[in-house]
Specification:
With about 280 residues, the chain is mainly α. Helices cover about 75% and strands about 0% of the residues. The protein is globular, with a radius of gyration of 24 Å. It contains 14 helices and no strands.
């Protein structure tokens, strides 16, 4: 009985500590969201207020009227769409490594995995020089092209597709289906769990794209939301209400996606384990 009481007491203490820690972690985000609906004079009040005294949407109107956030949003969505297309290419590559036997298969796959150990900052200058030779700098194609495929995505798809029974694929081939049709109608529907996970990660990566668009784009018409948020901070550094609106507009989709699909995101990393 004493042991059970100690365990319950420990659980209560742990629960209280975690609850307090969770509130402290979430409070800045709540304050940021609520402050985006405040006037500038209310944001700088000391002591600060949590709930807006005068609810206003003027900060969000200014984002689109004065900061071209509509253009940044369009560019970000284009990058996200290309990220989804790249996910399809990763799935095809993963399927090839998982179910086809060809000369140098293991060596090529290990080379793909080796690229995961190279920091992206190391390859930025060579990639930039290559795209510059192709006259793709300051273009949307130059922004999205280097990120179409990735070693981590190929690895995840390969690991998952190795678990698909070969008998299913052989049966579709005996029925006269082409390889591409087999991939589209058999492999992709079976791979819905990993597709969902990769779609979430592709969205998060595309939505948060900052450094590469900043390097490649000289024209503000090609900037993304992350770059626009950086401009907002530099141009309107004293307007904290406007900055809170920009940060909220940038962060809220990511928070919503993570809350809804956090289980799938966590499972994606366990799926990457060797089977």
């Amino acid at each position: 009985m004493k042991g059970n009481n100690k365990d319950r007491l420990f659980q209560w203490i742990a629960g209280i500590v975690l609850t307090i820690g969770g509130i402290m972690f979430v409070l800045p985000f709540i304050w940021m969201i609520l402050s985006s609906f405040k006037t500038e004079s209310e944001v700088i009040l000391i002591p600060p207020t949590l709930w807006p005294q005068d609810l206003t949407f003027e900060n969000y109107k200014n984002l689109f009227a004065n900061m071209n956030f509509a253009v940044y949003l369009k560019n970000t969505l284009i990058i996200v769409l290309f990220a989804f297309f790249g996910m399809f290419l990763n799935a095809m590559a993963g399927f090839g490594f998982a179910k086809y036997n060809f000369k140098g298969k293991n060596g090529i796959f290990f080379m793909v995995l080796a690229t995961m150990m190279i920091p992206s900052q190391v390859t930025m200058i060579p990639v930039y020089l290559i795209l510059n030779k192709l006259n793709l700098t300051n273009t949307m194609l130059g922004i999205v092209l280097p990120g179409l495929v990735g070693a981590f995505g190929i690895f995840l798809f390969r690991q998952f597709m190795t678990t698909i029974p070969d008998e299913i694929i052989e049966a579709t081939r005996l029925d006269g289906a082409s390889e591409f049709r087999t991939f589209i109608q058999i492999i992709l529907p079976v791979s819905k769990p990993i597709l969902a996970v990769q779609a979430i990660l592709a969205f998060i990566g595309g939505w948060n794209s900052f450094l590469w668009p900043l390097i490649m784009a000289n024209d503000e018409k090609l900037y993304t939301l992350s770059v626009g948020l950086s401009l907002l901070k530099s141009q309107y550094g004293g307007n904290f209400a406007l900055q809170m609106a920009g940060a909220t507009f940038m962060v809220m989709p990511i928070i919503i996606v993570f809350i809804i699909f956090q289980k799938n995101i966590i499972e994606s990393y366990t799926t990457s384990g060797l089977k």
